[in-house]
Amino acid sequence: xLTLTYEYKLVPTAQQVEVIEHxxxxxxxxxxxxxxSRKDWxxxxxxxxxxxxxxxxxxxxxxxxxxxxxxxxxxLTEAKKxxxxxxxxxxxxxxxxxxxxDRAFTDMQSKRLGFPRFKNxxxxxxxxxxxxxxxxxxxxxxxxxxxxxxxxxxxRDIPEGFRVKQARIIRRASGYFIALSLQLDVKxxxxxxxxxxxxxxxxxxxxxxxxDGEKINRPRFLKTLQRKLKxxxxxxxxxxxxxRNRHKLNQKIARLHQRISDTRKDWHVxxxxxxxxxxxxxxxxxxxxxxxxxxxxxxxxxxxxxxQFVTILQWMCWKQDVYFATVNKDGTSQECPECGxxxxxxxxxxxxxxxxxxxxxxxxxxxxxxxxxxxxxxxxLNLKLSEVGQILDLKExxxxxxxxxxxxxxxxxxxxLPSQESQKQENLIVRLxxxx
Length: 436
Ligand SMILES: [Zn+2]
Prior knowledge:
Helices cover 44% and strands 17% of the residues. By secondary structure, it is an alpha+beta fold. It has 13 helices and 15 strands. The protein binds zinc ion.
């Protein structure tokens, strides 16, 4: 099964905007109610039996089951019989809200994310129609439950043969959008490891360093926009709370946030395409992005958006038939990529890797990227690290016959010659500001 998500800007009528806003409000109250009942249940089990607090205590019968998804969905159906407001919104949309809450709870445990939060009117931003009709699309119009036919800006065509499975309506500072998830019933084989290997080291100093010796800086335009944002936020303090001017300024800030995130995403897509070009396999270190975001460098990391970039890169690799894998990140900066010697811990201010054993000197980030590449090849082709070094050496010094058996077969899969650079790639290089 192949699933794609296409996003379009909606052009709703005033009446449709009203319905969307109403749906969001009801969704918010369902979310908050469901979260409250879950929290109450958890709180009621927190106090030890022999030591109740003096002030207040949650009293929920001991045999009351935990309000899980099924329980809450049942409650919702019950409540709809007496509550006309709940009834005014599509039933499946509300059920999806409960499902989203349920997922937030499981993610909290499995992915170590934070506890789900109550939402105010700005925080509830989207809802989903989980089932769409077969003929819901006509030209630049889409038929949605309750909303009827709605126009959208058809910025690109929906690919042949795909069926609209779900539709998510999203409110942003720049208007309303619809994200269609499209499905096609085919099996797509995963790319297998072959061709030119490329290791990537993500970092704060440079955004990406590759094992081919390229370093890609963070783009400057984001910094400029960031500065603009700061200026506006400073101005916000002087505005009176609840005033019209403050509201206007807030809108302006929201639009700027939107622009920053759009620009960043666009850059990530372009960079991912650039990195895929000429590569047959791409390896990235397996970093725990959440712990990075909580750490000392949190602001930089959130700004750089590594998580989004890795997701986009993975998708781009799949699209361009490039093998993608993550490798163990431990000590990538402490190892010599040429001879495998442990060079010991480097502090962040040491920017150069120079090996005392083999005398290999290169920049720190590139060395780390090369270690990542070697580890990646060794995992993907099931080779020892020393054999990886042999293969790469032979490839660089033209073809040799020094390898035996299986090792030689695998060597045929690896090529270190990058493909010829096209004009398109040159253009990308200019736009990305890559220093070689
Ligand atoms: Zn060395």
